[in-house]
Amino acid sequence: MEKVQYNEYLQEVTDILPGGVFLTVKSGEELNTMTIGWGTIGFIWGKPIFMVAVRDSRHTYELIENSEEFTVSIPFNGAMKEELKYCGSHSGRDCNKFEDCDLTTVKGQMVSTPVIKGCKLFYECRIKFRQVMDAKNLVEEIDLKWYPEKDYHTLYFGEILSCYIDEEVD
Amino acid sequence: MEKVQYNEYLQEVTDILPGGVFLTVKSGEELNTMTIGWGTIGFIWGKPIFMVAVRDSRHTYELIENSEEFTVSIPFNGAMKEELKYCGSHSGRDCNKFEDCDLTTVKGQMVSTPVIKGCKLFYECRIKFRQVMDAKNLVEEIDLKWYPEKDYHTLYFGEILSCYIDEEVD
Questions:
Q1: Which residues of B touch A40 (CB under 8 A)?
Q2: What does the alpha-carbon distance between residue B168 and residue B170 come to, in Å, rounded to a whole number?
Q3: In this predicted model, what pLDDT tens digit does every residue of B119-161 receive, in sequence order?
Q4: Shortest CB distance from B49 goes to which of A6, A40, A130?
Q5: Model confidence over A36-61: pLDDT tens digits?
Q6: Residue A152 pLDDT grade (very low, low, confident, very high; cuts 50, 70, 90)
Q7: What residues make up the domain containing B88?
Q8: Interchain proximity A138–B129, CB inside 8 Å
């Protein structure tokens, strides 16, 4: 793994993100990964920040609410399409995604949560602020389109502690 | 002005941001600009999003709370250092920053809020979600360091409607 600046690949990250990347969360001995297509990156509180959003209906929500960390693993060049599809359409409550998709994890460098092998770019983050979305401040068009079940996202602002690429992956 | 993808200059934006960029807000006939050093950019609700943060003690807060829009104007190559310094250390309550700094505005393309001439890159945004930070979900180290006065930021998530560069500016 080769260390890179947190913002060195932001154009690639934001191009790839809507198509799916892996959000991995660990709580105690329980580990889960899910496919996310939304997030923002930037600089707040004097720190580089990766903000991810998790609906309270998700299994990942139960884990991340009891954790201070997450990792984001980003496949480049259309890699891992099948795995992303599976991890975005199955719940860790009902299956073990790592076994089902034959995913290999790589130990985190700065956090106890691993990253997903086969991806190109990795972010290790420690949560500094979290807040459930309050629908009263959301425009109606988005509320109706994305939250018909009222399962609002909680926003997790993670300080990026480490960002690196796997130089052996395309 | 030349239209660009919202994420084409993200590395430059995040490199420049901590040193200061202009956040411009208009409410009715009242216009103000302030220097911000924090923000994130990415993709949420199927839309490109620029998130900015404004403390409730700011004059800009009074305006943005009565507005649905903002613009971000980003000077490249160390331009407009003096103007950024002035606009970050004076309040629009007490002075007219545009007159004092001899700032020229350029009409927005998609919003009624203008951008600041002399900058290189511009974002025009419409606010889709806003939320005041709830300190109970903030880690203590950040609370103590950045909010001794308890003047928490409100986070404004703006859909990026237009992103463009001034090809006549370095």
A1: 40-44, 49, 51
A2: 7
A3: 999 999 999 999 999 999 999 999 999 999 999 999 999 999 9
A4: A40
A5: 999 999 999 999 999 999 999 999 99
A6: very high
A7: 2-165
A8: yes
Chain A partners of B145 at a C-beta cutoff of 8 Å? 45
Asked if residue B132 is part of any domain, the answer here is: yes
Q: Looking at chain B, which residue has its C-alpha nearest residue A134?
A: B131
Please state the pTM of the whole predicted model. Answer: 0.97
Task: Provide the phi-psi class of A13: left if phi over 0, else alpha when psi is between -120 and 50, else beta.
Answer: alpha
Residue A170 included in any domain: no
Mention every residue, 6+ apart, whose C-beta is less than 8 A from residue B142.
Answer: A45, A128, A129
Cβ–Cβ below 8 Å for B40 and A37: no
In chain B, the number of structural domains is 1
CATH number, domain containing residue B61: 2.30.110.10
Query: Is B170 part of a structural domain of the chain?
Result: no
The answer to whether B74 and B16 are in contact (CB under 8 A) is yes
CA B74/CA A1 separation, integer angstroms = 33
Low-confidence ranges of chain B (pLDDT < 50): none
A39: in domain: yes
